[in-house]
Amino acid sequence: MRTESGQPLNLTVSSSLDAALHEGWEAWDAAARQAGPDRVSAWLAHRLDWPALRTEVLETVHAFLSTDDEEERAMLRAELAEIAESRDDFLADTLWEGVLAAGLTLDDPDLIFEATGHLAALAEAQGDLLAAAEHYIDFLNWRRQDEHTSDVEAVETAFDEIIRLARLDGDQRAAALFEFRQAAFTRLAEVDEDRAMVGDWERDPTPYRSWA
C-alpha cells in the first residue's frame, strides 16, 4: 500500500511502541509493559520483518516483562537485542543501552563489557569510529573507579579496540597514547599487581578522554 505521494505506507502494529523507542529504552520499557507480551511480540516480528518471530520470541518477551529481577531482566533484554542486530540497528542500540544501564546499576562488569562491545560494534557499523571508541573509553573509566573490578582480558580488549579505532580514524597520536597506557597496565597485570585487578591502575586519576 502507498500514500498519495507514492511513498510506501508503513503500517505499524503499535504506534505507542514506535514512539517510545525514539525516546529511549526506559520509555520503551514502560510502553512494552503497558502493551503486554502478545502485542510486543507482534510488534517485534513486524518491525524486524520476521513473521515467525512473533511465536518464537513470545516466551522471552513474557519473561522480560514479568520479572522484577534486574539481572534476569538485563539478560533477557540482551537476548532481544541480539535478535534485533543486523535487522534493526536502532532497536538493537536502544536495547543494549538498557543492558548497559542495568550493568552499571548492578556494578556487573560482564554485563557492562558485553553491552559495550555490542554498542561499539553498532557505532562502527554506522561509520562513527569515535563513538565506538568512546564506548570502550567509558568502560575503562568505569573500571578505574574505586572497588570496581573486571577480567584483565576485558581491559586489554578495550585498549586493543581503542587503539585499532584510533588508527582507523587517522589519529596516530591517540593510538600511541593508548598503547603507552596499555603497556603500563599490562606490566602491572603480569606481576599480579593489585591495581591491575581492582580500582585505578593509573597514578593520575584524570579520566581517559577520546581524541575528539
The run of helices and strands is HHHHHHHHHHHH
Number of strands: 0
**Largest sheet geometry:** none
Low-pLDDT regions: 1-9
So what's the overall shape?
A: elongated
Number of helices: 12
What fraction strand? under 5%
How would you describe this protein?
By secondary structure, this protein is mainly alpha-helical. The chain has two domains: 10-106, no CATH class; 109-201, Serine Threonine Protein Phosphatase 5, Tetratricopeptide repeat (Alpha Horseshoe), CATH 1.25.40. Helices cover 69% and strands 0% of the residues. It has twelve helices and no strands. The longest helix has 19 residues, at 172-190. It is elongated and about 55 Å long.
Overview features:
212 residues; mainly alpha; Serine Threonine Protein Phosphatase 5, Tetratricopeptide repeat; 2 domains; elongated; disordered N terminus
Give the topology, please.
Elements: H1 15-21, H2 25-35, H3 37-47, H4 53-56, H5 58-66, H6 70-84, H7 89-106, H8 109-125, H9 129-143, H10 152-168, H11 172-190, H12 194-197
Brief account:
This protein has 212 residues and is mostly helical.
